[in-house]
Amino acid sequence: MLRGKALVIAMCIGQIGSLLPHVAVPAVMAQHLIPLWQLSASEAGLMASSFAIGYMMAVPILTALTDRTDARVVLGVGSLLSSTATAAFGLFAEGLASASLIWGLAGIGFAGAYMPGLKALTDRLPPGDSSRSVTFYTASYSLGVGLSFLVAQVIADTAGWRAAFLTTAAGPLAMAIVSAGMSGVRPPANARRLLDFRPVLRNRAALGYILGYGTHCFEVYALRAWIVAFWTYLVAVNGGNAILEPLTVSVIVAVIAMPASILGNEAAIRFGRHFSISIFMACGGLLAFLIALAIQAPPIVLLILVLIYTLAIFADSGALTSGMSASAQLEFRGATMALHSTVGFGLSAAGAWAVGVALDAGGGLAAAQGWRAGFIVMAAVAMLGPAALWWSRR
Asked: Which of 8-12, 245-249, 272-276, 316-320 bottoms out in mean pLDDT, i.e. has the lowest?
């Protein structure tokens, strides 16, 4: 049975597999799905958001359930559903409605994998090992997303977009195997109702991290949903010369998030969690606003700004989640994680869609004003995070 460091390593590997389908839709929609199905930016944003919508609807039940049953059971079933739904997208998606429905089912599967996976991990670790282990687990998220961008785009360009989904569908099976290799854990007896979040709502310290995580997820999902389309726009307006191709930029943006999250958590341990997270969030909002101002600048300027922006918005990821986990009452940890994920992915769905609406309002995917509006929306939401943390300490 998996224990200690071997468990942490196995969970990180399983997490990477779970995430292989994660951004398959944003990775292929700019060059394949939008022109094929003649989608507007807001429709494409809604399609990309359906994953987060499905996640948001299921995660309160599935994660709260881990306070009553061994989280590895939920983890295994969710991983299998994620794999099946991703394959179904490749086989059966034919337009906005069917694609959104199937991708929402994939989000439900991931809802049974991500936070229940975190609960399965923390249930099997001594308290002193949890902060860095949680950060490694959440940081591996970024590596998985980077591979998702890479694999989905390469396969879509060489074998078609349907093959990209059929291939990435194999990834979540890795987490299903890891869940089968865990030792059993019996949760403590719990007489409260399954979806009773009142104890979590009374925990102001945890709630501050949860609300901050929501603003973080808005930015993250907006960036992941639209980075390929944004860089495709830059390639087009610069005559095919934008320093790097959209594939390369999307992978770099995803992968550098991993060290940013780890180093950000170390900074939080050293300098104080609330202080560090607030600084990172404020820098992220400022950088999004600078990108909006510089939207017609040379590609090298925008590349530098986007990469620094990525570092800023991901530096608070591990610190927010480990802060939530540390602030949660033991008997309500599953419910706390459920609310954390519900708020986070609810605002993730809003992020991808809101930027799509801003793009349409500003003239569409080919208009500088549209992209300027999109980044201004991201900047405005980023500034709400420090306010949530300040409120939680009053």
From this structure: 316-320
Average pLDDT, the chain: 89
Burial of 394 (0-12, 13-18, 19+ CB in 10 A): exposed
Asked if residue 194 belongs to a domain, the reply is: no
d(CA 47, CA 24): 12
DSSP string, 192-228: S-TT--HHHHT-HHHHHHHHHHHHHHHHHHHHHHHHH
- Residues in contact with 222: Cβ distance below 8 Å, sequence separation at least 6, in sequence order: 351, 352, 354, 355, 374, 377, 378
In a domain, 190, yes or no: no
Cα separation of 101 and 85, whole Å? 10
Number of domains in the chain: 1
DSSP string covering 143-172: HHHHHHHHHHHHHHHHH-HHHHHHHHTTTT
Residue 361: how many CB atoms within 10 A of its CB?
Answer: 16
Decide if 191 is inside a domain. no
Output the CA–CA distances (angstroms, integers) from residue 187 to 66, 173, 212, in the order listed: 8, 25, 28
Name the DSSP letter for residue 381. Answer: H
Find out whether 101 and 47 touch, Cβ atoms under 8 Å.
Answer: no
Residue 192 pLDDT more than 80? no
State the pLDDT at residue 36: 96
Rounded to an integer, what distance in angstroms lies between the CA atom of residue 363 and that of residue 180? 50
Q: What angle do CA 263, 268, 270 make, to 5 degrees?
A: 95
If pLDDT is split at 50, 70 and 90, which confidence band does 330 have? Answer: confident
CATH of the domain at 69: 1.20.1250.20
Alpha-carbon distance 116 to 62, whole Å? 7
pLDDT digits (tens, 9 = 90+) for 52-96: 999 999 988 887 788 778 889 999 999 999 999 999 999 999 999
CA angle 98, 105, 319 (to 5 degrees): 130
Instruction: Provide the terminal-to-terminal Cα distance of the chain, rounded to the nearest Å.
Output: 44
| 93 belongs to a structural domain | yes
pTM: 0.84
Q: 329: helix, coil or strand?
A: coil
